[in-house]
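Q: RBR-type E3 ubiquitin transferase, please. Structure only.
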Amino acid sequence: MHSDVDEELSDDEGSIYTPAETNVECHFCKDARPISNTINTSCNHHLCRGCISRLVGICVKDETAYPPQCCGNKLQTSELRFLEHSLRQRFEARVREYETPIPVRVYCHRCGEFLDPDSSTITTGSSSAPAASIHTSRYCHICLIRTCVSCKQANHPTRECQETPDERALKGLAKQKGWQTCPRCKAVVELSAGCYHVMCRCTAQFCYLCATTWKECGCPAFDEERLLAMAAQ
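A: Structure for RBR-type E3 ubiquitin transferase:
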């Protein structure tokens, strides 16, 4: 004996009928997607598989887009389950790079590959020896060569770090042009417009005039005559 419900859930051949899966709107692309092919974020939005992959792909190429987020909320690892294996591997490598403070990052001096701290780091010299005699390098599995952690140049275990000709030339040009150096990551910064408040790519905020942490010096915040002259150009 079949009930009315049984008849509604069975077709003519007796197979069980499965109701259609609920569709939800992807918050990014606005397309309707099966709910099983989306994630529900902490801000209660649904994101589809394609949009998640594109979002993460952008982060892999552009550090300023990291971390992937929705409504200002960082997407959690569990919310990135739809990533293809190769994209997940590249993203995880970028996470290790991006989460490493810029001043202590080490890149292969030949190919530019990021060398994370566990990439066959070797330290030579005794812990009781002077700092100058302790040498640390990291190995690049692409180029099969080592890079000095201190000067970021080719490995040189038998001598101290030396300033390269390019570094000397850049310092000379920076002094001539009046450029400033970030006190944290040592990147050279040129102020083209605006006030003297500088935010470096390493997130350090400092005064362009004296390189002191922003708001901890007595320098003026801006030069009114300079701003007016630039506005008139």
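A: Brief note, in case it's useful. DSSP finds five helices and 13 strands in the chain.
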